[in-house]
Sequence to fold (426 residues):
Amino acid sequence: MSPVIELDARRLLCPMPVIRLQDCVEKQDRGVKVRITCTDPGTMNDIPTWCRINGHRVLATEQLEHEYIFLVQKDPDGT
Amino acid sequence: MTRKAVALISGGLDSLLAAKLIQQQGIEVEGINFFTGFCVEGHTHAIRKHDRDRVKRNNALWVAEQLGIKLHIIDIVDEYKDVVINPKHGYGANLNPCLDCKIFMVHKAQEWLKQHDFDFIITGEVIGQRPKSQRKKLMPVVADESGADDLLLRPLCAKSLPATLPENEGWVDREKLKDFSGRSRKPQMALAAEFGFEDYAQPAGGCCFLTDQSYSVKLQDLWDNRGNREYELDDIMLLKVGRHIRPSKAFKLIIGREEGENQYLSGYKRQFQTISTVSHAGPLALVEGEPLDPQQLELACAITARYSKGRDADSVEVRFSDREQGSRSIHVKPLAAAQLNPDWVIV
Ligand code: SF4
Fold:
């Protein structure tokens, strides 16, 4: 199993967390998983939307008091 | 062969409609959206605690989803500085360099187009919609100076402009494009209804904070007091947060207005001297500028205390923190309303 890539997008405001995720995912192979930790509540909308429109999948979402964590898989269906 | 167009997606209705008109002609469309740092997004909502549960969606992503297209968000914060600092065509009513901004964005789109092997560029511009950048005689300026020339198609007003390459080559049917002009939004709203789009964003002033008067005043103040017009992303983000009070050229206070802003400002503790109230509930203030001398420090603490629950108390305890000298407690009398010079408040 390939390791999960960790991204820290805490304190960044939208759309910077999405840009961080996008720039990281772009460099990976299909199926690679990336976990991104954010503090902007806007990411609760923006990251799932960005994944939907670009063919990536949100495998898990976790909401802590001040943090939002997403586990994303790159293009699992080969779109 | 399917032709491909890259659409500049701002998140507003016009870019949505322009892209849809082209999609309908069998063209494959992908979107790009530029992040300049000045973009009007949900930042103030994200920061302010009482707004947190009505955090706004990112409109560019929403538009892309409505269209079913990919969206590439591109960070142009650094390159964009030159557009804001030295706009060849000048500013609009505030510090908005709209014409230079459009030229720059179309130029970036053209670079993207070459790298990704796309055929042409579309934007949602409408002739005469905005006073400065969308006058008919200026439309060719964007195409020329960006280098995009006849690869730039504006589907919402194309019929009133000279034909572009996609029209001349027959990739798109010019007859199915529009001839919208002027400030009325009615034709766009009618077209949106025709396409079945609802709940779209209708930004009032413009697409970024540079069209906002109070924001521009704060940016100008920053430049004037630094003696140059450079800025970093943190500078322009902080202009969106808190009360900005400048008692002298030497320093400015950025004072949180509520818990969410205080929390956001606390993320900058390592970069700034800070003042927070201890004996009474109150704000966190960042001190921007030179290290404070004792007199300035007392004034800065008194101003911060004025915005705390202890504003009428004889003495308020505050904590002053400095990344080099550590932190210490100071007792001050909050500044009385009459002592707060209105000229210090930057709005
Ligand atoms: S409002 Fe801002 S983003 Fe829009 S064209 Fe003008 S400067 Fe550019």
Summary: The helical segments of chain A are 16-26, 43-54. Chain A touches chain B at residues 11, 13-16, 18-19, 22, 40-42, 44-46, 49-50, 52-54, 66 (CB under 8 Å). The two ends of chain A are 22 Å apart (CA to CA). Residues 43-54 of chain A form the longest helix (12 residues).
